[in-house]
Amino acid sequence: MSRNYLNWRLNHLAQGGTTLPEGAVPPDVPDELPEFARKLKKKKAPEFHIHAFGALADTLEQHPDNVPFILILDDFGDGREFFRTEDFGYLVENFLKARLLARESKVRVIVSLSESQDQRYRTILPSSFRRTPVPLFPEQLTDHLRLLYKLRFKKDIPAKSEERLSALPTRQRTGEELRALCQNIHDYESLFT
């Protein structure tokens, strides 16, 4: 799969373009996901999501059918401002069913939903999807946050924030809580750089 191609299409969408960008895909297109997500949240029209799904589907069609690949779909927001139920329905019908599940390929899909999202979208997902509840992350919060931060932002947690981690209460947390903590650390650090 061409990550450059997907980044190129998504960056074009984030700048307001809904048609295919002109020209050849440039080499080493940066992944502007945090900026893209902020711009996506400002878009209210459901057709914006449709174009984003189209870009992802076109990218996956470039992936060789005989090569295994796992696609994880997550971060559907709170269901009000960011990802509405009808948008999720479009994703399932026109992307998952029509463009991925309909063809013979080794692409496997994981849809990661919170408990409230699972309740909201339960009737929309195909019955062939298996539900596997994921338990809360254990108390080793700092280990999980270090790994998540490095995966997401391609760098270690800054030393000042590392000191603050030890002050966080020890308890189990959901994946969404870990992601929010990771983003908060990054946003806080960016204020001072």
Helix and strand arrangement:
Elements: H1 3-14, H2 33-42, H3 46-61, E1 69-73, H4 85-101, E2 107-111, H5 115-121, H6 141-153, H7 159-165, H8 175-190
Parallel strand pairs: 1-2
Distance N terminus to C terminus?
Answer: 34 Å
Range of strand content: 5-15%
Number-wise, the strands total: 2
Low-confidence stretches: none
Described by its quaternary structure, the protein is single chain
Largest beta-sheet details: 2 strands, parallel
Class per helix and strand makeup: mainly alpha
Trace the largest sheet across and list its strands. 1-2
Q: Can you count the helices? A: 8
Helix-strand topology string? HHHEHEHHHH
Query: Radius of gyration, Cα only, in angstroms?
Result: 18 Å
How many domains?
2
Rough outline: globular
Helicity, as a percent range = 40-55%
Whole-number average pLDDT? 75
What does this structure look like?
A two-stranded parallel sheet has the order 1-2. The model has no long low-confidence stretch (mean pLDDT 75). The protein has helices at residues 3-14, 33-42, 46-61, 85-101, 115-121, 141-153, 159-165, 175-190, and strands at residues 69-73, 107-111. The protein is globular and about 50 Å long. Helix 3 runs parallel beside helix 4. Helix 4 links the parallel strand 1 (69-73) and strand 2 (107-111). It has two domains: 3-121; 141-190, no CATH class. The protein has 193 residues and is mainly α.
